[in-house]
Structure formats: C-alpha cells, structure tokens
Amino acid sequence: MRTKTAAAVDVNSRRAVRPVQAKQPNRASKRKGHQHLVALCALGFCLFILGLVHVWLRLQVVHMGYVLSTTTKLQGRLEQENRELKVELASLTSPDRLEAMARRRLGLMPPEKGQVLVLP
Amino acid sequence: MKRALQTSHVRLTVAKILFLTIFLVVGGRAFYLQALQGDRLMRLGQRQHLKEWTVLPKRGGVFDRGGEALALSLEAQSVYARPRRIQDAAKSARDLARVLKISSAEIKERLTSAKPFVWIKRQISPDEAGQIQNLKIEGVGMFHEPHRYYPQGQLAGQVIGFVGRDAEGLEGLELGYNEYIRGETGSSVSERDALGRRVLVEGVEGLQVPAGGDIHLTLDTSIQHLAEKELEASIDKYRAKAGVAIAVEPRTGEILALANYPTFNPNNYSAASPEQRRNRAVTDSFEPGSTFKTIVAAAALEEGIVEKEDLFFCEYGKFSYAGRIIHDTHPHGWLPFSKILQVSSNIGFSKVADKLKKDRFFKYIEKFGFGQVSGIDMPGEAPGLLRRPETWSGIDLATHAFGQGLSATPLQMVMAYAAIANGGFLMRPYVVRRALSPKGEVLVENQPHVVRRVVSERTARLLASMLQDVTTEGGTGKMAKVEGFDVAGKTGTAQKVDLVNGGYDAKKRVASFVGFVPADEPRLVLMVLVDEPQSNVYGGVVAAPVFQNIARGALRHFGVAAQTAEPIAGPVAEADIPLRRAPKRSSQAAFDTGATPDFVGLSLREAVEKARDLNLKVKIHGNGYVVKQSPGPGGRWDENGMLVLNLQG
To answer: What DSSP string runs through A76-110?
Structure first.
C-alpha cells in the first residue's frame, strides 16, 4: 500500500518537473539506450556469426569424418589387396610350382654332375 | 483509473501464473527427461547414431630365412543368415547352393532353423562373395573374418601348423608363437549416418589395435622343398609308411629343413588326419639302431678306453653275451675299432660298451641329450625313452650299444651328430630366428646356444674321420657319398617293437642315415629316417641316397665349392668316370716354371675348370670370355700367386 502511494506521488512529481528538467537527461538516456541497442545488436550478430562458425565447423567435422571413413576404407582395401598380391606372389614362386614349370614349360632338368661350378 | 489499474494487475497476475505454470510444466518435463530418463534416452539416441565396430585381429606372417612368405593373413567373407527374415527358403537355398557348392537341402535346413542367426559358410573366396552380394537375398549377409593362407601349400606344414577359424594357433609354430603373431581384437564406437555408413568424427584412434608381429624362421624354403621331395620319392620307392628328414646348421643349431611324410596342406587342415598333421621329427621317438653306435664310439674315444686302431674280435657274426646271442649282418673276425664302425658290427660295439661300463656309457648318452627334450621352440617335443642304468639287465649294456632298448626322436639324433660335426658342442636347436613387432622391433631373438660340451675337439675330429670311412668303399653308407665332398655319417637299420606280441617285429624296420658334409668343415648335418620300408629295409640303401640327394642340392644352394673335382657329365656311365682329384703337382709345376698359363679366349666355365685343375687362385671380373689376364700369358707370378681374369661378352 505504501509503495503504491509512493509510486503515485512519484508519477505526480515527475509530471510536475517534466517541462523544466526532463529535456537534457532524456536525450542522453535515448543516446545511451541507442548505444545499448547497438551493442546488443553487435553482440547478437557476433553470437549469430559464432553460431554459424560452430555449425560450419560441425559440418566440416562431419565432412572430414566421411572423408576419413572413406579413406580408412580405401586404406583397408589397399592393404587387403597388397596382402592378396603377396599371397599370390608367394604361391606363384613356390619351389614346387617353379620346378614343375621349369620342367614342363622350359624342359629344364636338375644339373648333372660336373655341370655346376662354384666360382672362386 | 483505479479500476483500470486493478484490471491490469489481475491480468498481470494471470499472466504470471500462466507463465509460471508453463515454466513448471516445461521445467518438470525437462527434469523428467534429463534427470530421470536421461540415461535411458541417451542410450536410445546413441543406439541410433552410434555403432560399435569390431576391429579384426591382424595376424602376423611367417617367413623363411630368405623372406619367402609361408603364412599370411587376409580378410575373408563369411556368409550368415537370419532365418526369420528369409522370405522364400527353398529358392534362397537353391541360389546359395549354386554359388557356395553346398547341397541346397543342407542350406534349406539352416534357413528354416528356429535360431535367430546361422552360419551358411565361413571364409569364402572373393569370387563367391561377389556372387552372394549380387543375389541380394533378404536375411542373408556377410561378415569379414580373418583367414589364414599358406601360399606354399604343404611345404613345412607340420612345422608351421595352422590356425583355427577363431584366428588362434592350433598346432606347430602358429601355436608355439601365437602370443607374438596373433594380434589383438578390438572394437571402436563411432557415429553412423542414416544410411548406416561409418562417420569417423572422433578420428581413427579407436581403430588402432595392436597388430600381430611377423616371425622369421631358420628354414630355407629351397632345402625344405628338396628334402620333402626326396623323402617322398624314397617312401614311394620303398613303399614305406612314413619318414622324416632334418637338416641342421651344426655351428648354430638352426634347423634348415624339417620334412615329414605323410604331409598335409594347412590350407585345408580339417581334411588331414592327426597322423598326417603330426610333426614326427619332434614328437615321435624311435629306437635309433646302429646310428647310436657313434655315441658309443664318442664315449669310448673320449674316455680313452679305445684308440682308432685297437683290434676287436667280431666272433664271425655270432657272440654269446649275458646269456643271449648277438648277431652281425655279415660275419667278421679281427677288426680295428674304426673298421667296426665302418661295417657297423653289433658284436664289436657290444665289446666296446662292455669296456666302457654302463655308468660311463649312460653319462655320455645323457650328455648327448638323449632322454631329455632338446628345447626346440616347437610344441609337443618328446624326450624319448631312456632307462637309468640301475634298471638295465645284463644284456641291456650290449643292446644299448647298437641302439636298442632306448628311444630317441630324430631331432635328438641329428643334434647329437651336430655336436660331433661342430667339434664337440651340443647346441640347442631352434626354428624361429626372430619375432618382430609390426614396427620392426625385435620381440624375441633366438641366438645359437651351447647346451654343453659333450666331447673334446680331438675326439670329435677323430670320430668324424672314422665316420668318413662309413661312406667310402666297404662302408655301409657309401650310397650317401656326395661327389666332390667327403661325407661323414652312419647308417641305421633298427627293428621295430611288436606292440601286440612283445619283443621285436620280424619284418618292420626303421631305416636311417645321419651324417654331415663336408666332413672336415661341415655346413650341414642331415638325418633321414624312413619308417617301415617294404621292398628294402637297410638304412644304407633306403635312407643314404636320400641323404646324398638332399646334401648335394643343399651344398649347391649354399655355393659350397667341391673339395675335389666332380666328374664331367657325359654319355659314359657314372661308374666309369674316376673322380678327378685336383692335380697338385701340375700346379706346383706351373709355379715352378714361373710362367703363367694362357687363359685368354676361354669361357668362364673353361677358365674355372682349368684354374681348378692347375690349383690356381683366381679372381674373376665380369662374364663371358676371358679378354685379359693378370699376370699375362707367360708372365711371372706375383708374390700372392693370384691370377686375375677379366671377362667380357
């Protein structure tokens, strides 16, 4: 109740002084308010940009995740291919196969006595 | 005015209550979702966008001493089905059967199973995997699984062993070195998109699990192949049951080849019987027979009981000892000690053992490593059977002298001979040189390890010279002779124990030959054992030629120059060609005259043969024909006596 009366009195008193004293501070407060608004807008803009950067970074991370995933898969495939080729190479150069090929295709035979000379 | 204020106050209050209620409802809901249901909802969410990916173990490879791959791992696809999702089991079974070469009835039975998950076929080929993918059958899929390949097939199958479907080593080195080569299985949680693709937003660290290391063996693929081939040929020829061939580097104890017959292909290990998969060289023990006489001879020489030329009366083939009769294959009278080894007289060695006495004899049997495991880095090694001398009956001293009444593995026997070959040191055999981590760090390295000195160098040299006589004319092992090299060795023809009736089987024999070459500077100790040959049973006939062929090939492979000139191949029968000994006198003559022979224009082969005949030291540069020599033809020798030949063309 007390507060209400004081507010009323205050309103009255402001009305009473407005024509004489309110002109100068009002302009200053408007300017100040304007400055606050600009700062707020700047802050909002910064936050917006920050948000955009965050989203962009997040997209980049996801994109890199895809790239990494693809590259890892490619690496795995190449490693597997490399191992397959090693198996194939070892199979193709196995002594058993080489001997059979040398005999069948090239008609080679193990060297006879005296045919092998060890160089000094 | 006042009324207006009151109205606005009421509105404000209503708004406050409204907003407060909304706030409370939203806050309460947020609290419920975040605090009470948070964990559950987080799990549900993660299940949608996170997935656990299994990282398969990367098993290391197995390589021979020259880097030839003997075992490598690949990823293979395995086909599975979720029977509840199968629409048309009969058609799917037919399609799958066509690709996988399994009966459609068998597949259909699996597809109609009540289980939620069934394997159709494990570890299929890439071709089959491609065809299965093209079928696009709902409820049928494929997993990656590690698969072991043995590119050399059956080569050294029993040594390498094999791994099971769960990538764990089951036999051989795959089992023995499993902890170094198996690699770790891991799992990694990463995000996935709506299409189920993996998105590695957290990096690849989770995928990095320690891979298995490689092991590098002491085996030489070429000698291993040769040993397996020659062993098999002999077993076929003499219709034998089984066989073993082991080649060892005597100074280090490195196993160069370890061949078993029957063989098996580790790529298809499930099709092989335990009989085929057994590494007989390490796990089976045999009565050694006459090859054991060398141990008696070593003990007697080392103890100074006999000398090389001491005479023994061989009783003309029949000798009564401890109430039993000992026989020789051929009757002999008085023979020097070296000769009783050459002709392998049981009676002679019974008398030597009798002079040695059982305690001293037993001491040397143990010193040579019999009755205990050699410590080879392979699983399943048997120690053989050796009774303490206190339990020996009267005849046991004599029977032990010719290798009866005890048993030894082929590996123990070859290592005992390696001790004689290297000057008296018993070495620990090993088949893995080193195990390396994927980064190349050495995890395990086997170094030559002397177990103990068994006999003195003098005894070893003396015994080696006596063993050389075994492979010369008049010896039991002359078929082991390698042209151009002195071979030291001993034949063995052991009776086999009759496990049903007791005593020895009348027909079953184990033929063996064990020796080393070149005799004075051994590069190779080789044992050949043929179990139960049918058409001939003697070690000197069945096993010695296998020794000869393997030793010849191995020496060529090592590039060991012949000690004496090999006879030239030609249309003349081998027996007609005398071995051309290096004519030392002509060499001396070449030096005496002071004039250098003319080599210009000769081919490389002709030049080397001429230099060898003249016993000249030559240095060769280039290939083709000799275009220049230093000293020049007719020139004077320098103080080194070295002839330098430059070849071209």
So the answer is: HHHHHHHHHHHHHHHHHT-HHHHHHHHHHTS---P
Q: How far apart are the two ends of chain A, measured CA to CA in Å?
A: 124
Rounding to the nearest 10 degrees, give the CA dihedral for residues B502, B503, B506, B510.
Answer: 100
**Distance set, CA B243 to CA B20, B233, B247, B431, B488 (Å):** 94, 11, 14, 19, 21
Look up the ipTM and state it.
0.75
User: pTM of the prediction?
Assistant: 0.79
Helical segments of B153-213, H only = 157-160, 172-176, 178-181
Residues of A in contact with B54 (CB under 8 A): none
- Evaluate whether B65 touches B219 at the Cβ level (below 8 Å): yes
d(CA B28, CA A32): 40
Compute the distance between CA of residue B37 and CA of residue B30 in angstroms, rounded to an integer. 10
- Type of residue numbered B648: Q
Average pLDDT value for residue range A35-60: 94
Pull the structure tokens for residue A7. Answer: 């507010």
- pLDDT tens, position by position, B288-305: 999 999 999 999 999 999
pLDDT tens for B467-495 read 999 999 889 999 999 988 999 999 999 99
What is the tens place of the pLDDT at every residue in B178-222?
999 988 887 777 788 877 777 777 777 777 778 899 999 999 999
- Confirm or reject contact between A19 and chain B (CB < 8 A): no
Coil/strand/helix, residue B105: helix
Cβ(B107)–Cβ(B96) below 8 Å: yes
- Tell me how many degrees the CA angle B246-B252-B257 measures, rounded to the nearest 5: 20
Give the residue from B64, B191, B200, B221 with the most A CB atoms within 10 Å of its CB, the best one to mutate: B200
Distances in Å between the Cα of B131 and the Cα atoms of B79, B125, B135 are: 11, 10, 6
